[in-house]
Amino acid sequence: MSRRRRDNEPPVTLFSFQDIITSVSGVLILVTLMMVLDLINRHSSSAATAAPAPVSEALVQDDAHLQSEIETLQAQMDRAQERVRTVSQINFAEIPLLLDKETMRKQALDQEVRDLTASLDTARYAQSQGEARKAQLSQRISQLEKELQQIKSEPANRVTFANREPTDKTPVLVECSHAGVRVKICAEPPRIQSFIDPASVHYASSIRKFKEWTAALSHSKYAFVVLIKPSACAYGPALVGELRDLDYDVGYEPLEEEKDAVF
Predict the structure, then answer these.
(1) Are strands 158-159 and 260-261 parallel, antiparallel or unpaired?
(2) 195, 188, 154: which is closest to 171 by C-alpha?
(3) How confident is the model at residue 164 (pLDDT cuts 50, 70, 90)?
(4) Are residues 64 and 118 in the same domain?
(5) Same structural domain for residues 74 and 55?
(6) What's the distance, CA 111 to chain centroid?
(7) Is 98 left (phi over 0), alpha (psi -120 to 50) or beta?
(8) Residue 8 within a domain
(9) pLDDT tens-digit map of 9-23
(10) pLDDT tens, 26-37?
């Protein structure tokens, strides 16, 4: 009897426990959502109260930048309008004339550049020639200084003759003495030639050799200066006349017997 009653008893179920668990979970989820919403609202309100200053400053900066761009664009537009007005005022029929003028101006400038370049080349060439001439003069001065020292060291009975007048002819010094004739051609380098015959006691052969030598010279290239010693008075003046007859430029000077011309 008792066993049969147990079989008739309702079975044990966990449905109530599941309801409790589900209700508690729902409450927890609801509380969590409310807390999250509250945090979000708090964060939004704090951000809303703190952000206005930076946002407004950024807007001011953007506004200033945009205003600057607007002014730049306005200036560009003004320049473009000015160019348009300038182009509209151009007479296109005059463009070929303007091009011709500019071409002629360019050609004149090119010619001026060529002239200046040629002048510069000429100046450089003249400078190089001047330096070469300076070197030649320095060499000549050194040579003259050596000759001067040599002249100073010569004995006191020597006489020096200098050609003071510029000429395109080569001077020829002729010393006439009782022994005969000596000649110095004042060229570069100087040449000395003696027509004195040591074996002869008379000057006749020396004069003959001198005349043969002068006959072969060019009267347009040489000029004679005859130095006559007292012992050569017998033939010296006549020799001067014969040189003049040959159409030479001739000058003469007396020379003391005891002195010698510096050759």
Answers:
(1) parallel
(2) 188
(3) low
(4) no
(5) yes
(6) 21
(7) alpha
(8) no
(9) 666 666 677 778 888
(10) 888 888 888 888
